[in-house]
Write a structure and sequence with these properties.
The chain has about 140 residues and is of the alpha/beta class. It has a single domain, classed as Rossmann fold (3-Layer(aba) Sandwich). The chain contains five helices and seven strands; from the N terminus they run H-E-H-E-E-E-E-H-E-H-E-H. The strands form two sheets. A five-stranded parallel beta sheet has the order 2-1-5-6-7, with helices on both faces. Strands 3-4 form a two-stranded antiparallel ribbon. Strand 1, helix 2 and strand 2 form a beta-alpha-beta unit. Helix 3 packs parallel to helix 4. The chain is globular, with a radius of gyration of 14 Å.
């Protein structure tokens, strides 16, 4: 299921204006999708801040892995979520406390309508069940 309200123009706008991405659920294992997507986004010039409490304090992608979103210093444009759909609500609640956050992005297979409604009510863009590493080449960005 994809979100029909997310047109190509809106996704293009999100991906071209976003500079800093907090990637929740990052894994240091190179075979994990969260690792591959993080590396892809970093290679495309985005600042990617890995978020995973099990690896907090370690370095990855030129950043220190953070335990929680609230540990990130400075503004974040987008929160990219690699968590189960039922675990998204608290991530979105915490994301809403971040300075500058404009977009909640739920990865492939991740859909949480209640969390999406909460984020949209606060004026954020929400993308569900999509991957920026797929959308960027698809849109020719």
């Amino acid at each position: 299921m994809t979100d029909a309200s997310m047109t190509d123009d809106l996704i293009r706008d999100i991906l071209t204006t976003t500079r800093t991405i907090a990637l929740v659920g990052w894994s240091p294992k190179p075979d994990r999708p969260s690792n591959g997507v993080a590396r892809y986004l970093a290679a495309r010039g985005y600042r990617v801040i890995p978020v995973n409490p099990g690896f907090a304090g370690q370095e990855a992608l030129g950043e220190i892995v953070q335990a929680r979103l609230s540990d990130i210093e400075g503004p974040v444009d987008m929160v990219d979520i690699f968590r189960r759909s039922e675990e998204v609500g608290p991530v979105v609640d915490e994301a809403l406390t971040l300075a500058g956050v404009k977009t909640i992005w739920m990865q492939l297979g991740v859909v949480n309508a209640a969390a999406a409604a909460t984020a949209r009510a606060k004026g954020l863009n929400v993308v569900m069940n999509r991957c920026p590493a797929i959308e960027i080449p698809r849109l020719g960005l």
